[in-house]
């Protein structure tokens, strides 16, 4: 149940669609001027998305070793 909850929260914190969230990996996190962002190509449209990494998202990622599992 915790896996499903964390995946749902990850989607809430990032606004990512299901398909984009399932493709997430830690290599997509980039730092710019001291701030962290998730930079990814959207699966459906192919456009680039830049999503700020907020403190709640950092805590969620740290708790899950920067991986998000889904089922």
What portion of residues belong to β-strands?
A: 15-25%
| Helix content bin | 25-40%
- Report the sheet with the most strands, covering strand number, pairing sense and barrel closure: 3 strands, antiparallel
Per DSSP E runs of 2 or more residues, the count of β-strands stands at: 3
Main-sheet strand order equals 1-2-3
Radius of gyration from the alpha-carbon trace, in angstroms:
12 Å
What's the average pLDDT? 95
Sequence-ordered SSE layout with sheet pairings:
Layout: H1 2-14, H2 18-22, E1 29-32, E2 35-41, E3 48-52, H3 55-63
Antiparallel strand pairs: 1-2, 2-3
Helix pairs in contact: 1-3
Short note summarizing the structure:
With 71 residues, the chain is of the alpha+beta class. The chain contains three helices and three strands, in the order ααβββα.
